[in-house]
Amino acid sequence: MASSSLTISLHPWLTKIKASIAELPISRTVINTHLHGDHTGGNAMFQKDAPVIAQDNVRKRLEAVAATASPRPKMLSHRYADHDVNVHLNGENIHALHFASGHTDG
User: What class, spelled out in words, does domain 2-96 have in CATH?
Assistant: First the structure.
């Protein structure tokens, strides 16, 4: 499975990034822009410390991938939006837009 192998290969790099921001006074949120492993492969590592948000189509695809994998990966997001989502982080409002005909459907 691509996202599992990607997560394993990127684990040292992701660990280094996570450690470098651990003490910064910032809010942490992960937004999955689409299903591909380079966008969702770090979910298991980051979701311990940050909410993971994804568009509903990403959830459907992640659930399908997770259902066929053994062992079942911990890559599902925490919060889903059927279209756009607003997030307030570090005093800023972020409005993430869903474009249905982009790189993927999620």
Answer: alpha beta
User: What whole-number distance in Å separates Cα of residue 87 and Cα of residue 13?
Assistant: 26
Q: Find tokens 């062992």 and name the residue.
A: 71
Residues 6+ apart with CB under 8 A from 56: 80, 81, 82, 106
Total-model pTM: 0.66
Q: What is the pLDDT along the chain (106 residues), one digit of tens a residue?
A: 334 445 556 678 778 887 888 888 767 788 888 888 777 877 877 787 788 888 888 888 888 877 787 666 666 666 766 778 888 877 888 888 887 777 777 6
Backbone phi, psi, residue 33, to 5°: -80, -25
Spatial contact of 86 and 94, defined as CB atoms under 8 Å apart:
yes
